[in-house]
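for the writeup, i need someone to sanity check this before i put it in the appendix. the sequnce is what the collaborator sent (i think, or maybe the updated version? ugh). structure was predicted straight from it, no edits. if anything looks off just tell me and ill rerun, i have time this weekend
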Amino acid sequence: MSKLILGPTFEEMLHPDKIAPEIRQRAVEAKTKDPLDPINLFNITWRDSNNNIYYHVMPKELTGVDANIVVLYGKDFPSGSHKVGAAYSVLIEKQMFGEVDPSIHTLVWPSTGNYGIGGAYVGCRMGFDSIVVLPAGMSQERFQRIESYGAKIIKTVGSESNVKEIYDETHRLRKDAQVRILNQFEVMGNYRFHYHVTGNTIVELAEVLKAQGIGVGKISAYCSAMGSAGTIAAGDRLKQVWHDHKIVGLEPIQCPTLYNNGYGSHDIQGIGDKHVTWIHNVMNQDAIMCLDDIECKKGLQLLTEQAGWETLVKRFGVPRASVEKMATIFGISGVCNVLGAIKTAKFYGFGKNDVVVTICTDAIDRYHSVMGDMTKMFGKMDEAEATARAHIFCDQKIDWIREGTLDTRKQWHQLKYYTWIEQQGKTVEELDAQRSQEWWEKEQGRVAEIDAKLKAARG
């Protein structure tokens, strides 16, 4: 096996101050000076160079609820999205167990966007030839970013919800003995990154917020829209800390798979992939809520264009500093997640001492073309239109909600059969094992094992 390029452990991604000081210093410097240097793998973390967490407390003038809605944002990760953490974790685990070799294997990253971008970034930085398979209908910025990192692209038909077509292409590519498929929808490294790194970051954030007079040191609920369903794995960690914690999954109204076995096309890029993923612990989920993709895109335009900024300050009293921050940290799925967090706060009756946490996966740099299409479709946003769009947030309704009863959780779990048993070669015995939380706890426990292997590989 050729010499491997290695990055951080799970624990170092959670606490980058545990990285060797000289490596940490080099990584921090390279972040802006040389973002394609492999040393930037050590910048895969939810924390800045001063070890402060990347988060923003949403203004209540916009959310319209007493509960505190807080977002972790991923734009400052290498590649501009926290999905790079999942891609790195999947690849480093494969390396540690000798399943991939950069001198032999070509990596294939099935994706609808940010995981593929992360895979292009990580794979090429770690010396692998990489191919990203994603639908042709995704934003042009996604394709440009992937190519800029040195990966090749295979475009499949359709848009966000056309994941089966991605799978069909990976089946074709798998026939080459030198190809390795790193399937985010299946591989548990994705789950482990979010369980350990994202989850424990949020646990620690609770105390940070409490020190500022926000909440009481507890996270009442965690919301995440599901694409691969990696990000929502953080909720499993939170529920271990606070047993009454609520985990809420989000889907597009236009493709309500868990909500009512629905299907369809939508444009909340990164979520709603029309199947239940292997790594989704649905038996631990408390509710599913659906959001409108057009409302999410209109909400993003409100937060990222001049007319929206001025209206939020002038008519709604949102502090200008908050408006300026939100303009830089949101993409479409981030708006979806915040709308879901508002629904969650309203549905559960949360008050001023409650904190609901969610995620901004990426930022506006991936959606300028989408916003341009919105302007062509709906016209240029003026103050009146911006005012109407602000009410998408503060007047969010508590419709399209289904609670996770024992029966509904079983239904969600059983939907895995059609993708994973019939199409992807899993067994019924494997599927049945996932019903027990012990199966998931065993996967969580492998974090220490993998960290130990990585430390040993450094020599």
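The radius of gyration is 21 Å. The mean pLDDT is 95.
thx in advance!!
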